[in-house]
Amino acid sequence: MTVASPHLLWTPPRFRARTGPTEEPRWVRILLTAIVLAVLAVLLLAPLAAVLAEALGQGWRVALASLGEHDARAAIRLTLTVAAIAVPLNAVFGIAAAWLITKYHWRGKALLLTLIDLPFSVSPVVAGLCVVLLFGAHSALGGWLVAHGFPVVFAVPGIVLATMFITFPFVARELVPLMTEQGKAEEEAALTLGASGWRMFLTVTLPKIRWALLYGVLLSNARAMGEFGAVAVVSGKIRGQTATMPIMIEMLYNEYLSVAAFSMAALLAMLALVTLGLKTALEWRHADQLAATARH
Amino acid sequence: MNPLRALRPSSPLPGWGLAAGITLSMLSLVVLLPIGALLLRAAQVGPADLWAMIARPRTTAALLLSFRAALVAALFNLVFGLALAWVLVRYRFPGRRLIDAAVDLPFALPTAVAGIALTALYAPNGALGAPLLQWFGLRVAYTEIGIWIALVFVGLPFVVRTVQPVIQEIETEIEEVSATLGASRLTTLRRVVLPMLLPALLTGFALALARAVGEYGSVIFIAGNLPGVTEIAPLLIVIRLEEFDYDGAVAIAMAMLAISFALLLLINLIQVWSRRMTAEA
Amino acid sequence: MHIEIDGIAKTFGRTVALHPVSLSIPSGALVALLGPSGSGKTTLLRILGGLEEATQGRVLFDGVDTTGMRVQDRRAGFVFQHYALFRHMTVFENIAYGLRARPRAIRPPQAEIARRVNRLLDLIQLPGIGGRYPSQLSGGQRQRVALARALAIEPRMLLLDEPFGALDAKVRRELRQGLRHIHDSTGLTTVFVTHDQDEAMELADLVVVMSMGRIEQVGKPAEIRARPRTAFVQEFLTA
After folding, report:
1. Which CATH topology does C1-75+159-238 take?
2. Phi and psi at residue B145, to the nearest 5°
3. How does it assemble (chain B) (predicted)?
4. Which of A3, A63, B237, C140 has its CA 20 to 30 A from that of B172?
5. ipTM score of the complex?
6. How far apart are CA C114 and CA A123, in angstroms?
7. Using 50, 70 and 90 to split pLDDT, how confident is the model at A294?
8. Residues A22 and A118 in one domain
């Protein structure tokens, strides 16, 4: 991304050579576009480039080798495992919550919507703290669970819970506006035609929401694999056991193992780029099947 | 028997019981019970002790820093986000769609990655940090400016994404009317367009602010974390937890929640007020 | 099938949609529920179809109480106001939906389903559109497809909610004749909801005028025209 030079900008058609009544003067347009692009280049492109440059500073072989180390592989495996549990569970929750909110009239709908959004206004670190307070070894529930051989905090279940907390609203938030817009007539039609509840859901509802569902799952997956603050608090950062990829990045960075840290970071950055690409493709190809408000 | 029965709406659509069961049990396990544990612990400690812990200089400094830096970043994002959204919707230039897509990068990029990347860039020997230091004598990394930059990064998409659809829906007729009535372009933008965007701008501002206040991953690498100077509140919570000072951590968390909700409430009120203003017009 | 509505009432929270109403619909009749919006006509139709639960009263189909009977078991062919065609399915799949949803034991084989769908497409005079999607159809075509889809399940009655509401005047006139034709050839008890008195008067054997959740008058079109029983009916007809 470079600062756009004036000749790259859109030239108005000749018959409207003068500034139209609903546009800014040409020099303003050029200046504003240039400023915006320059800031974006510094703010978005530069960090991405920095990650790649630092990772490949000693050649790609070294970078790749660092990812092959035992602890790094364990971190990658753990991150994939956590996402594989947390994301599907959140998808199920999102569908169930959206079903309740959009298909029935009942008191308490607004409250449910507010509660679903709650994690957005809670710091990830505070989310982690909450999980520690509920399930930590010193708490009644946590103590009981540890005594029965099921530790939550400083173990995988805690990481999954903290990750779910952070990504909780994503799927529901994509589905609710879309399903509100779609109404319930098609579901009712399916019932009058004799379909069972599951058949109605699988053949009518699910196909109508699949792209929005995928969109929500993509976003929540990206966030789940990258979550740092909440996991940092609950994981205990045990290398090779409870260190996820982001935690591993922090540990390597603090040990001045720059190439290893940035290689791991580059891997996650790649995931982010793939997510963005897929998300954009969905927006371009299936805009009609994502709610108008679905864009983030 | 089943409390859900009482709420059950009369509807032929199946699945109420199943969906309500899944929703309530997961909401409770993942969100409500953990937050309840925090509130319970805070109640056990008691307001006096909580206040005493919050009033410690290191804690107040951290809280002040977190909210001040979040405000600075959200204000920057408010102005820049509006400009960016306007350029993306109204102007045509090559690569526009690509840049539109790239705006969401901060949502997709893990915060720890953003944190070390920004630090590498703005460190005194970094690609941007070195020239800034040399030419302007400006230190970015390990100062509050570094915190601002990290928070601007994570909050960047919020204002853009809330304002963009509203700009798209403005009918140019409204602007044409203003022009036919003799208003200059600047007047039209200031008196006609801006008021229409105000509610969305405030929503985006509130979201960016809420995100920035609680942000941890992207900040701790670039901040320097000097107690009382560049130590943010979420980091202090982590430090208290590592010292097994759970009550200290709870106190800071409660302070953060209280201030966040007060701010969000305030923004909400302003929004209601501004909506009423536009509705009357 | 003979439909007996016996003291049906419906409230939504505090609003009363239907005061207790009773009505007898003879087998094979073509009945219009006529009234302005908010008169309770759609609520009554949805109760017949099992899409709403009545707060009190009961509905008898051929003398059998239907209270608590599931939507799926009523075999009421329902045509929704905006048709509610499955947007992600072709016209063929839409019409075949009800047959494919049957339990395996009574589900017709593929070839039989195809044969029936094609016969229905002929009946609605739209042969050869089976491969299209609802978004590729005109409003009038969608309405006819919705009708065919409802007929495919071999319903015991036809229930139509403002079947011509979303169409322009010319198409509306054509489709009225289409509905009349289908009613006459199938002999199904048919109830449709409308706010258009011309439509009700021209099409129906029996017109039920409703207002504010009550039935104002029931009668043949000519009767109602000649002797409006209440001030409301008189006013509504002259409007």
Report:
1. Rossmann fold (3.40.50)
2. -60, -40
3. The complex is composed of two ATP-binding proteins (CysA), two transmembrane proteins (CysT and CysW) and a solute-binding protein (CysP).
4. A3
5. 0.91
6. 58
7. very low
8. no
